[in-house]
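Long-time lurker, finally posting.

We've been working with Xylose isomerase (Murimonas intestini) and I want a structural starting point before designing mutants. I don't trust myself to interpret raw outputs, so I'm hoping someone here can both generate the structure tokens and explain anything notable. Sequence follows.
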Amino acid sequence: MSEFKFSVGPWNVHTGADSYGPATREDIPVEEKFKKFAELGFSAVQFHDDDAVPNINDYTEEEIREKARELKKTLDKYGLKAEFVAPRLWMDPHTQDGGFMSTSAKDREYAMWRAYRSIDIANELGCDMVVLWLAREGTLCAESKSPVWATRMLIEAINKMLEYDSKIRICIEPKPNEPIDRSICGTMGHVMAVSAATIDPARVGGNLESAHAILAGLDPAHEIGFAMAMGKLMTVHLNDQNGIRYDQDKSFGVENLRAAFNQVKVLKENGYGDHGEYVGLDVKAMRTTRDEDSYKHLENSLKIFKALEEKADRFDYDFQKKCVENRDFEALEMYVMNLLMGIE
Ligand code: 3MF
Ligand code: MG
Ligand code: MG
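Top reply, 14 upvotes:
Generated this for you. Predicted structure of Xylose isomerase:
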């Protein structure tokens, strides 16, 4: 039995399209996904605002709330909670050059409208967190935007969200690049600094995605540890990534098993989940995966996470202490490798 509760977003089960080719699998209706998520043992679902309310631009504020209330009923049917709502700004024609940091005041206003609607939806779904993956908040052309101005616009936008709702928590999901060239808020360090600059730092934290840390050339477990040291790790997006390449969202642990082990270990050692945090997955099936295996990458990620939890339970802290005292890191490293390889 895992000591953690798991969450997942509907986009984790997708049709296989990428930048260079069309879909390879049939689209699955969202309620069918919920049913399967519950069967697989997930406790909560993560939403984009327009996952929760498709075609969100077409509705009034009250209609959006009403649709969110209907969704809540569907979630209740499957015993699922909502974990967070994230405004999907990067898909809209209003946000071609970013949202909160767009050079157009009209577009910035639109981005705030989506952020406020995301807060409304979160309230209706019974959750208190808005995630900001700042997809297009950066530059495609370095000289097009001042990084000083852009950073201040982000802080201003977050302050407006905090003022709009006194309970809402804002959780930034940092990523150094893709789809933009240079992000304004690329790592957990950036998130912590932005948090400290807002009007209510206790309500602004981070969502660490393993692949995003790897894309920044950083160790995901250390990024998790850094945010936890500040008391600001609000959720995680566990997955994996083969080095500094295109964004891959591979199943957790399949590329970097030792790094995955250390992510599980740091979460366990520091009471992740004690305040209701979920272990979130942000994984995608490979393009070659068949329709009947649409959920395999989720099953695999859970299996790998739980197997690593068992390894972390068996971690011999006395032996580790001895190795550290003797500065025998060769022995400690081999011990970890044996633990992971199942060689006792
Ligand atoms: C991109 C991501 C995003 C976010 C999601 C929720 C589509 O690399 O990781 O997934 O996680 O939008 O914030
Ligand atoms: Mg990602
Ligand atoms: Mg993510």
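Before you design anything, note these points.
The chain is about 45% helix and 10% strand.
The pocket of magnesium ion (ligand 2) is lined by residues 209, 211-212, 247, 249, 282 (CB under 6 Å).
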